Amino acid sequence: MASTPHRAPIRDLTQGPIARTLVAFALPILAGNVLQSLNGSVNAVWVGKYLGEAALTATANANNILFLLIGLVFGVGMAATILVAQAMGAKNLAQARAVMGTSASFFGAVSVLIAVVGFPLSRLILQWIDTPEAALPLAESYLRIIFLAMPLLYLFAFVSAVLRGAGDTRTPFLFLLLVVVLDVLLNPLLIFGWGPVPRMGITGAATATLVANAISFVAMLLWLYRRRHPLWIGRSELHLFRPRPAIVRTLITKGLPMGAQIVLISLAMIMVMRLVNLHGVELSSAYGAALQLWTYVQMPAMAIGAACSSMAAQNVGARRWDRVDGTARAGVWANVGMTGLLIALIVLADRLVLGWFLPAGSAALEPARHLNHIAIGSFVFFGVTFVLSGVVRSTGAVIPPLVILGLALWGVRVPVAQWMQPWLGVDAIWWSFPISSLCAMLLSLAYYRWGHWRQAHMLPDGPATPQATPAEVGGQPPTPVCSLGGDEPEAHR
Protein backbone atom coordinates (compact mmCIF):
# COMPACT_ATOMS: atom_id res chain seq x y z
CA MET A 1 0.00 0.00 0.00
CA ALA A 2 1.34 3.45 -0.88
CA SER A 3 2.17 5.62 2.08
CA THR A 4 -0.09 8.55 2.75
CA PRO A 5 1.71 11.87 2.21
CA HIS A 6 2.17 14.19 5.16
CA ARG A 7 -0.27 17.06 5.00
CA ALA A 8 0.61 20.63 5.85
CA PRO A 9 -0.62 22.02 9.17
CA ILE A 10 -3.63 23.84 7.71
CA ARG A 11 -5.96 25.03 10.46
CA ASP A 12 -9.69 25.36 9.87
CA LEU A 13 -10.46 28.55 11.77
CA THR A 14 -14.21 28.15 11.21
CA GLN A 15 -14.39 25.33 13.77
CA GLY A 16 -13.53 24.81 17.44
CA PRO A 17 -13.40 27.06 20.52
CA ILE A 18 -12.89 30.63 19.32
CA ALA A 19 -10.71 32.05 22.11
CA ARG A 20 -8.44 29.02 22.40
CA THR A 21 -8.06 28.73 18.62
CA LEU A 22 -7.28 32.45 18.30
CA VAL A 23 -4.59 32.47 21.00
CA ALA A 24 -2.94 29.31 19.65
CA PHE A 25 -2.99 30.85 16.16
CA ALA A 26 -1.56 34.18 17.36
CA LEU A 27 1.32 32.88 19.51
CA PRO A 28 3.62 31.92 16.57
CA ILE A 29 3.01 35.38 15.05
CA LEU A 30 3.98 37.01 18.34
CA ALA A 31 7.07 34.82 18.65
CA GLY A 32 8.06 35.74 15.09
CA ASN A 33 7.74 39.47 15.82
CA VAL A 34 9.95 39.10 18.89
CA LEU A 35 12.49 37.10 16.89
CA GLN A 36 12.75 39.78 14.22
CA SER A 37 13.26 42.53 16.78
CA LEU A 38 15.91 40.56 18.66
CA ASN A 39 17.65 39.75 15.38
CA GLY A 40 17.82 43.45 14.53
CA SER A 41 19.24 44.23 17.95
CA VAL A 42 21.94 41.52 17.68
CA ASN A 43 22.96 42.70 14.22
CA ALA A 44 23.15 46.29 15.47
CA VAL A 45 25.52 45.17 18.23
CA TRP A 46 27.89 43.50 15.74
CA VAL A 47 27.92 46.52 13.44
CA GLY A 48 27.98 49.27 16.05
CA LYS A 49 30.37 47.69 18.54
CA TYR A 50 32.95 46.36 16.08
CA LEU A 51 32.63 48.48 12.93
CA GLY A 52 32.04 51.85 14.58
CA GLU A 53 29.46 54.64 14.69
CA ALA A 54 29.71 55.43 10.97
CA ALA A 55 28.81 51.83 10.12
CA LEU A 56 25.90 51.84 12.58
CA THR A 57 24.66 55.12 11.09
CA ALA A 58 24.97 53.59 7.63
CA THR A 59 22.84 50.56 8.48
CA ALA A 60 20.25 52.74 10.26
CA ASN A 61 19.82 54.92 7.17
CA ALA A 62 19.71 51.95 4.80
CA ASN A 63 17.21 50.16 7.04
CA ASN A 64 14.95 53.22 6.96
CA ILE A 65 14.78 52.77 3.19
CA LEU A 66 14.13 49.05 3.64
CA PHE A 67 11.29 49.75 6.10
CA LEU A 68 9.69 52.15 3.63
CA LEU A 69 9.95 49.66 0.75
CA ILE A 70 8.47 46.85 2.83
CA GLY A 71 5.73 49.19 4.03
CA LEU A 72 4.77 49.95 0.43
CA VAL A 73 3.72 46.33 -0.15
CA PHE A 74 2.59 45.49 3.39
CA GLY A 75 -1.02 46.24 2.54
CA VAL A 76 -0.87 44.21 -0.68
CA GLY A 77 0.33 41.23 1.35
CA MET A 78 -2.55 41.75 3.78
CA ALA A 79 -5.00 41.83 0.88
CA ALA A 80 -3.61 38.51 -0.42
CA THR A 81 -3.88 37.03 3.08
CA ILE A 82 -7.54 38.02 3.38
CA LEU A 83 -8.39 36.71 -0.11
CA VAL A 84 -6.78 33.34 0.63
CA ALA A 85 -8.43 33.14 4.07
CA GLN A 86 -11.89 33.89 2.65
CA ALA A 87 -11.43 31.25 -0.05
CA MET A 88 -10.23 28.63 2.45
CA GLY A 89 -13.17 29.42 4.72
CA ALA A 90 -15.52 28.90 1.78
CA LYS A 91 -13.74 25.59 0.99
CA ASN A 92 -13.00 27.12 -2.42
CA LEU A 93 -9.48 25.82 -2.95
CA ALA A 94 -9.47 26.70 -6.64
CA GLN A 95 -10.03 30.35 -5.76
CA ALA A 96 -7.27 30.25 -3.13
CA ARG A 97 -4.83 28.82 -5.69
CA ALA A 98 -5.82 31.49 -8.21
CA VAL A 99 -5.06 34.17 -5.61
CA MET A 100 -1.78 32.45 -4.76
CA GLY A 101 -0.63 32.35 -8.38
CA THR A 102 -1.60 35.91 -9.29
CA SER A 103 -0.20 37.34 -6.05
CA ALA A 104 3.10 35.47 -6.45
CA SER A 105 3.51 36.89 -9.97
CA PHE A 106 2.62 40.36 -8.74
CA PHE A 107 5.03 40.28 -5.80
CA GLY A 108 7.79 38.77 -7.90
CA ALA A 109 7.45 41.41 -10.62
CA VAL A 110 7.32 44.31 -8.16
CA SER A 111 10.30 43.06 -6.15
CA VAL A 112 12.47 42.56 -9.25
CA LEU A 113 11.52 46.02 -10.52
CA ILE A 114 12.48 47.60 -7.20
CA ALA A 115 15.80 45.72 -7.18
CA VAL A 116 16.64 46.72 -10.77
CA VAL A 117 15.76 50.39 -10.23
CA GLY A 118 17.11 50.72 -6.69
CA PHE A 119 20.52 49.08 -7.10
CA PRO A 120 22.06 51.80 -9.34
CA LEU A 121 20.25 54.61 -7.49
CA SER A 122 21.34 53.60 -3.98
CA ARG A 123 23.64 56.58 -3.45
CA LEU A 124 21.07 59.10 -4.74
CA ILE A 125 18.40 57.65 -2.47
CA LEU A 126 20.68 57.86 0.57
CA GLN A 127 21.64 61.43 -0.29
CA TRP A 128 17.97 62.29 -0.61
CA ILE A 129 17.41 61.33 3.07
CA ASP A 130 20.51 63.33 4.10
CA THR A 131 22.69 60.40 5.10
CA PRO A 132 25.82 61.83 6.79
CA GLU A 133 28.75 62.10 4.37
CA ALA A 134 31.03 59.96 6.58
CA ALA A 135 28.54 57.09 6.47
CA LEU A 136 27.50 57.44 2.83
CA PRO A 137 29.99 54.98 1.20
CA LEU A 138 29.25 52.34 3.84
CA ALA A 139 25.50 52.88 3.54
CA GLU A 140 25.67 52.59 -0.25
CA SER A 141 27.54 49.27 -0.07
CA TYR A 142 25.02 47.94 2.44
CA LEU A 143 21.92 49.17 0.58
CA ARG A 144 23.06 47.74 -2.78
CA ILE A 145 23.12 44.24 -1.30
CA ILE A 146 19.74 44.83 0.35
CA PHE A 147 18.30 45.74 -3.05
CA LEU A 148 19.66 42.47 -4.44
CA ALA A 149 17.94 40.65 -1.56
CA MET A 150 14.62 42.46 -2.12
CA PRO A 151 12.95 39.73 -4.26
CA LEU A 152 13.78 37.14 -1.60
CA LEU A 153 12.55 39.38 1.23
CA TYR A 154 9.29 40.18 -0.58
CA LEU A 155 8.53 36.62 -1.66
CA PHE A 156 9.39 35.16 1.76
CA ALA A 157 7.03 37.67 3.40
CA PHE A 158 4.34 36.95 0.80
CA VAL A 159 4.42 33.17 1.18
CA SER A 160 4.38 33.55 4.98
CA ALA A 161 1.36 35.84 4.72
CA VAL A 162 -0.74 33.52 2.55
CA LEU A 163 0.13 30.55 4.75
CA ARG A 164 -1.29 32.50 7.69
CA GLY A 165 -4.40 33.16 5.61
CA ALA A 166 -4.70 29.40 5.10
CA GLY A 167 -4.61 28.90 8.86
CA ASP A 168 -0.93 28.01 9.27
CA THR A 169 1.20 30.23 11.51
CA ARG A 170 3.59 27.50 12.63
CA THR A 171 5.34 27.04 9.27
CA PRO A 172 6.14 30.76 8.75
CA PHE A 173 7.48 30.91 12.30
CA LEU A 174 9.76 27.90 11.84
CA PHE A 175 11.30 29.25 8.64
CA LEU A 176 11.58 32.74 10.14
CA LEU A 177 13.45 31.10 13.02
CA LEU A 178 15.79 29.57 10.43
CA VAL A 179 16.35 33.03 8.91
CA VAL A 180 17.22 34.51 12.30
CA VAL A 181 19.57 31.68 13.29
CA LEU A 182 21.40 31.84 9.96
CA ASP A 183 21.58 35.64 10.08
CA VAL A 184 23.01 35.64 13.60
CA LEU A 185 25.61 33.00 12.70
CA LEU A 186 26.58 34.50 9.34
CA ASN A 187 26.94 38.10 10.52
CA PRO A 188 30.24 37.70 12.41
CA LEU A 189 31.52 35.18 9.84
CA LEU A 190 30.98 37.47 6.85
CA ILE A 191 31.81 40.74 8.64
CA PHE A 192 35.19 39.57 9.99
CA GLY A 193 35.97 36.62 7.70
CA TRP A 194 37.37 33.24 8.72
CA GLY A 195 39.45 30.73 6.78
CA PRO A 196 38.49 30.88 3.10
CA VAL A 197 35.69 33.37 3.83
CA PRO A 198 37.02 36.90 3.17
CA ARG A 199 36.50 39.84 5.52
CA MET A 200 33.57 41.82 4.04
CA GLY A 201 32.90 44.44 6.71
CA ILE A 202 29.51 46.11 6.52
CA THR A 203 28.79 44.44 3.18
CA GLY A 204 28.99 41.15 5.05
CA ALA A 205 26.11 42.21 7.31
CA ALA A 206 23.87 42.78 4.29
CA THR A 207 25.12 39.61 2.59
CA ALA A 208 24.20 37.62 5.70
CA THR A 209 20.62 38.89 5.33
CA LEU A 210 20.57 37.90 1.65
CA VAL A 211 22.00 34.40 2.21
CA ALA A 212 19.83 33.67 5.26
CA ASN A 213 16.63 34.63 3.41
CA ALA A 214 17.68 32.73 0.27
CA ILE A 215 18.33 29.48 2.17
CA SER A 216 15.16 29.74 4.25
CA PHE A 217 12.96 30.66 1.27
CA VAL A 218 14.20 27.72 -0.81
CA ALA A 219 13.78 25.43 2.21
CA MET A 220 10.21 26.67 2.68
CA LEU A 221 9.35 25.99 -0.97
CA LEU A 222 10.82 22.49 -0.74
CA TRP A 223 8.84 21.88 2.43
CA LEU A 224 5.60 22.99 0.75
CA TYR A 225 6.33 20.70 -2.22
CA ARG A 226 7.23 17.67 -0.13
CA ARG A 227 4.20 18.09 2.13
CA ARG A 228 1.90 18.50 -0.88
CA HIS A 229 0.53 21.71 0.52
CA PRO A 230 -2.97 22.54 -0.78
CA LEU A 231 -1.70 25.90 -2.07
CA TRP A 232 1.32 24.44 -3.87
CA ILE A 233 1.14 25.12 -7.61
CA GLY A 234 2.64 22.23 -9.57
CA ARG A 235 4.02 22.05 -13.09
CA SER A 236 0.62 21.15 -14.53
CA GLU A 237 -0.90 24.32 -13.04
CA LEU A 238 1.60 26.96 -14.15
CA HIS A 239 -1.21 28.81 -15.89
CA LEU A 240 -2.31 29.95 -12.41
CA PHE A 241 0.70 32.28 -12.36
CA ARG A 242 -0.85 34.25 -15.21
CA PRO A 243 -2.16 37.41 -13.46
CA ARG A 244 -5.93 37.70 -13.26
CA PRO A 245 -6.98 41.36 -13.67
CA ALA A 246 -9.73 41.21 -11.03
CA ILE A 247 -7.34 39.84 -8.40
CA VAL A 248 -4.60 42.35 -9.31
CA ARG A 249 -7.10 45.22 -9.02
CA THR A 250 -8.17 43.94 -5.61
CA LEU A 251 -4.59 43.61 -4.40
CA ILE A 252 -3.96 47.24 -5.34
CA THR A 253 -7.26 48.91 -4.41
CA LYS A 254 -7.60 47.06 -1.10
CA GLY A 255 -3.90 46.77 -0.33
CA LEU A 256 -2.77 50.36 -0.81
CA PRO A 257 -5.15 51.81 1.86
CA MET A 258 -3.84 49.22 4.34
CA GLY A 259 -0.25 50.07 3.43
CA ALA A 260 -1.03 53.78 3.75
CA GLN A 261 -1.63 53.24 7.46
CA ILE A 262 2.10 52.56 7.91
CA VAL A 263 2.87 55.83 6.14
CA LEU A 264 0.47 57.75 8.42
CA ILE A 265 2.01 56.17 11.52
CA SER A 266 5.58 56.84 10.35
CA LEU A 267 4.89 60.48 9.52
CA ALA A 268 3.13 61.06 12.85
CA MET A 269 6.04 59.49 14.75
CA ILE A 270 8.47 61.72 12.87
CA MET A 271 6.38 64.77 13.78
CA VAL A 272 6.26 63.79 17.46
CA MET A 273 10.01 63.13 17.43
CA ARG A 274 10.59 66.62 16.05
CA LEU A 275 8.52 68.12 18.89
CA VAL A 276 10.50 66.10 21.44
CA ASN A 277 13.83 67.14 19.92
CA LEU A 278 12.97 70.78 20.54
CA HIS A 279 13.30 70.09 24.29
CA GLY A 280 16.92 68.93 24.17
CA VAL A 281 19.06 65.83 24.17
CA GLU A 282 18.09 64.63 27.65
CA LEU A 283 14.39 64.44 26.85
CA SER A 284 15.08 62.99 23.39
CA SER A 285 17.11 60.16 24.89
CA ALA A 286 14.40 59.55 27.51
CA TYR A 287 11.80 59.30 24.75
CA GLY A 288 14.13 57.06 22.72
CA ALA A 289 14.47 54.65 25.65
CA ALA A 290 10.70 54.50 26.04
CA LEU A 291 10.29 53.85 22.32
CA GLN A 292 12.53 50.80 22.65
CA LEU A 293 10.17 49.40 25.29
CA TRP A 294 7.04 50.30 23.34
CA THR A 295 8.29 48.28 20.37
CA TYR A 296 7.80 45.16 22.47
CA VAL A 297 4.66 46.36 24.29
CA GLN A 298 2.71 46.67 21.04
CA MET A 299 3.69 43.20 19.80
CA PRO A 300 0.85 41.23 21.49
CA ALA A 301 -1.75 43.56 19.98
CA MET A 302 -0.18 43.33 16.53
CA ALA A 303 -0.02 39.53 16.68
CA ILE A 304 -3.58 39.19 17.93
CA GLY A 305 -4.81 41.70 15.35
CA ALA A 306 -3.14 39.81 12.50
CA ALA A 307 -4.57 36.52 13.80
CA CYS A 308 -8.05 38.06 14.08
CA SER A 309 -7.86 39.26 10.48
CA SER A 310 -7.09 35.77 9.14
CA MET A 311 -9.56 34.03 11.45
CA ALA A 312 -12.36 36.48 10.71
CA ALA A 313 -11.68 36.27 6.95
CA GLN A 314 -12.03 32.47 6.97
CA ASN A 315 -15.35 32.81 8.78
CA VAL A 316 -16.48 35.52 6.37
CA GLY A 317 -15.76 33.07 3.54
CA ALA A 318 -17.75 30.40 5.41
CA ARG A 319 -20.55 32.91 6.14
CA ARG A 320 -20.16 32.24 9.88
CA TRP A 321 -20.95 35.74 11.08
CA ASP A 322 -21.50 34.54 14.63
CA ARG A 323 -17.85 33.41 14.70
CA VAL A 324 -16.70 36.70 13.14
CA ASP A 325 -18.25 38.56 16.08
CA GLY A 326 -16.87 35.97 18.48
CA THR A 327 -13.40 36.47 17.02
CA ALA A 328 -13.64 40.22 17.63
CA ARG A 329 -14.69 39.72 21.26
CA ALA A 330 -12.01 37.12 21.94
CA GLY A 331 -9.37 39.31 20.28
CA VAL A 332 -10.29 42.36 22.36
CA TRP A 333 -10.14 40.45 25.64
CA ALA A 334 -6.93 38.64 24.71
CA ASN A 335 -5.34 41.99 23.90
CA VAL A 336 -6.50 43.58 27.14
CA GLY A 337 -5.18 40.65 29.15
CA MET A 338 -1.80 40.19 27.43
CA THR A 339 -0.98 43.85 26.83
CA GLY A 340 -2.29 44.89 30.25
CA LEU A 341 -0.16 42.29 32.01
CA LEU A 342 2.95 43.34 30.06
CA ILE A 343 2.34 47.01 30.86
CA ALA A 344 1.89 46.26 34.57
CA LEU A 345 5.18 44.34 34.70
CA ILE A 346 7.04 47.13 32.89
CA VAL A 347 5.64 49.86 35.13
CA LEU A 348 6.62 47.90 38.25
CA ALA A 349 10.17 47.39 36.95
CA ASP A 350 10.46 50.56 34.85
CA ARG A 351 13.65 51.78 36.50
CA LEU A 352 15.36 48.51 35.57
CA VAL A 353 14.04 48.05 32.02
CA LEU A 354 14.46 51.67 30.97
CA GLY A 355 17.98 51.52 32.35
CA TRP A 356 18.83 48.89 29.75
CA PHE A 357 18.68 51.58 27.06
CA LEU A 358 20.37 54.44 28.93
CA PRO A 359 23.92 54.93 30.23
CA ALA A 360 24.55 54.25 33.91
CA GLY A 361 23.54 57.24 36.03
CA SER A 362 21.79 58.96 33.11
CA ALA A 363 19.79 62.06 33.98
CA ALA A 364 17.25 60.93 31.37
CA LEU A 365 16.07 58.00 33.47
CA GLU A 366 13.54 59.89 35.61
CA PRO A 367 12.03 61.80 32.63
CA ALA A 368 11.78 58.44 30.83
CA ARG A 369 9.91 56.92 33.79
CA HIS A 370 7.60 59.94 33.97
CA LEU A 371 6.62 59.92 30.30
CA ASN A 372 6.31 56.15 30.29
CA HIS A 373 3.81 56.22 33.17
CA ILE A 374 1.63 58.63 31.19
CA ALA A 375 1.84 57.10 27.72
CA ILE A 376 2.28 53.35 28.05
CA GLY A 377 -1.36 52.65 28.92
CA SER A 378 -2.34 53.90 25.47
CA PHE A 379 -1.27 50.56 24.02
CA VAL A 380 -4.30 48.83 25.54
CA PHE A 381 -6.52 51.22 23.53
CA PHE A 382 -4.26 50.77 20.51
CA GLY A 383 -4.67 47.02 20.77
CA VAL A 384 -8.48 47.18 20.77
CA THR A 385 -8.34 49.40 17.67
CA PHE A 386 -5.89 47.05 15.96
CA VAL A 387 -8.07 44.02 16.65
CA LEU A 388 -11.30 45.63 15.46
CA SER A 389 -9.58 47.04 12.37
CA GLY A 390 -8.29 43.56 11.54
CA VAL A 391 -11.80 42.12 11.80
CA VAL A 392 -13.54 44.75 9.67
CA ARG A 393 -10.76 44.60 7.05
CA SER A 394 -11.43 40.88 6.70
CA THR A 395 -14.52 41.68 4.62
CA GLY A 396 -12.77 44.26 2.43
CA ALA A 397 -13.70 47.40 4.41
CA VAL A 398 -10.26 49.04 4.27
CA ILE A 399 -11.01 52.77 3.97
CA PRO A 400 -12.79 53.41 7.34
CA PRO A 401 -9.87 52.04 9.45
CA LEU A 402 -7.53 54.30 7.45
CA VAL A 403 -9.77 57.34 8.05
CA ILE A 404 -10.07 56.54 11.77
CA LEU A 405 -6.28 56.24 12.08
CA GLY A 406 -5.77 59.50 10.18
CA LEU A 407 -8.23 61.35 12.44
CA ALA A 408 -6.68 59.93 15.61
CA LEU A 409 -3.09 60.71 14.63
CA TRP A 410 -3.39 63.94 12.67
CA GLY A 411 -6.64 65.26 14.07
CA VAL A 412 -5.86 64.51 17.73
CA ARG A 413 -2.33 63.31 18.56
CA VAL A 414 -0.24 65.83 16.66
CA PRO A 415 -2.46 68.87 17.51
CA VAL A 416 -2.62 67.94 21.22
CA ALA A 417 1.15 67.38 21.38
CA GLN A 418 1.83 70.72 19.69
CA TRP A 419 -0.91 73.09 20.76
CA MET A 420 -1.49 72.00 24.39
CA GLN A 421 2.10 72.68 25.45
CA PRO A 422 1.35 76.25 26.64
CA TRP A 423 -0.95 74.72 29.29
CA LEU A 424 0.58 71.29 29.97
CA GLY A 425 4.21 71.91 29.04
CA VAL A 426 6.09 68.95 27.59
CA ASP A 427 3.55 66.60 29.21
CA ALA A 428 1.20 67.53 26.36
CA ILE A 429 3.31 65.31 24.11
CA TRP A 430 2.96 62.33 26.42
CA TRP A 431 -0.78 62.86 27.03
CA SER A 432 -1.35 62.98 23.27
CA PHE A 433 -0.72 59.23 23.15
CA PRO A 434 -3.54 58.00 25.46
CA ILE A 435 -5.94 60.72 24.27
CA SER A 436 -5.51 59.91 20.59
CA SER A 437 -5.51 56.15 21.21
CA LEU A 438 -8.73 56.42 23.22
CA CYS A 439 -10.35 58.41 20.39
CA ALA A 440 -9.26 55.78 17.85
CA MET A 441 -10.70 53.00 20.01
CA LEU A 442 -14.05 54.74 20.46
CA LEU A 443 -14.33 55.46 16.73
CA SER A 444 -13.42 51.85 15.93
CA LEU A 445 -16.01 50.53 18.36
CA ALA A 446 -18.64 52.83 16.84
CA TYR A 447 -17.81 51.73 13.31
CA TYR A 448 -17.80 48.07 14.32
CA ARG A 449 -21.23 48.48 15.93
CA TRP A 450 -22.98 50.74 13.42
CA GLY A 451 -20.84 50.68 10.27
CA HIS A 452 -21.65 48.79 7.09
CA TRP A 453 -18.46 46.74 6.99
CA ARG A 454 -20.41 43.47 6.71
CA GLN A 455 -21.61 44.52 3.25
CA ALA A 456 -18.05 45.08 1.98
CA HIS A 457 -16.33 42.58 -0.30
CA MET A 458 -12.82 41.94 -1.57
CA LEU A 459 -13.50 40.74 -5.12
CA PRO A 460 -16.28 42.03 -7.37
CA ASP A 461 -19.29 39.78 -7.67
CA GLY A 462 -18.93 37.29 -10.49
CA PRO A 463 -19.40 33.69 -11.54
CA ALA A 464 -18.27 30.95 -9.25
CA THR A 465 -14.80 29.56 -9.60
CA PRO A 466 -14.40 25.75 -9.69
CA GLN A 467 -14.87 24.26 -6.26
CA ALA A 468 -12.32 22.06 -4.51
CA THR A 469 -13.09 18.42 -3.93
CA PRO A 470 -13.68 17.18 -0.38
CA ALA A 471 -10.34 15.35 -0.50
CA GLU A 472 -8.49 18.56 -1.36
CA VAL A 473 -9.76 20.38 1.71
CA GLY A 474 -9.37 17.61 4.24
CA GLY A 475 -12.65 15.82 3.73
CA GLN A 476 -14.89 18.86 4.32
CA PRO A 477 -17.73 19.25 1.77
CA PRO A 478 -17.40 22.45 -0.26
CA THR A 479 -19.65 25.37 0.58
CA PRO A 480 -21.37 26.90 -2.48
CA VAL A 481 -20.15 30.45 -3.02
CA CYS A 482 -20.40 32.76 -6.03
CA SER A 483 -17.59 35.09 -5.07
CA LEU A 484 -15.46 36.00 -2.10
CA GLY A 485 -17.32 38.32 0.25
CA GLY A 486 -20.58 38.86 -1.61
CA ASP A 487 -23.86 39.75 0.05
CA GLU A 488 -24.04 39.30 3.79
CA PRO A 489 -26.38 36.75 5.34
CA GLU A 490 -30.05 37.63 5.81
CA ALA A 491 -29.67 38.20 9.55
CA HIS A 492 -27.23 41.06 8.99
CA ARG A 493 -29.13 42.97 6.33
Automatic annotation (TrEMBL):
Main location class: membrane
InterPro entries assigned: MATE_fam (IPR002528), MdtK-like (IPR048279), Membrane_Transporter-Flippase (IPR052031)
Transmembrane segments: 21-45, 65-85, 106-129, 141-163, 175-195, 201-225, 246-273, 293-312, 332-358, 370-391, 398-416, 428-448
Membrane topology summary: Multi-pass membrane protein
GO MF entries: antiporter activity; xenobiotic transmembrane transporter activity
Domain of life: Bacteria
Location(s) in or outside the cell: Cell inner membrane
Keywords of this entry: Cell membrane, Membrane, Transmembrane, Transmembrane helix, Transport
Protein name, as recorded: MATE family efflux transporter
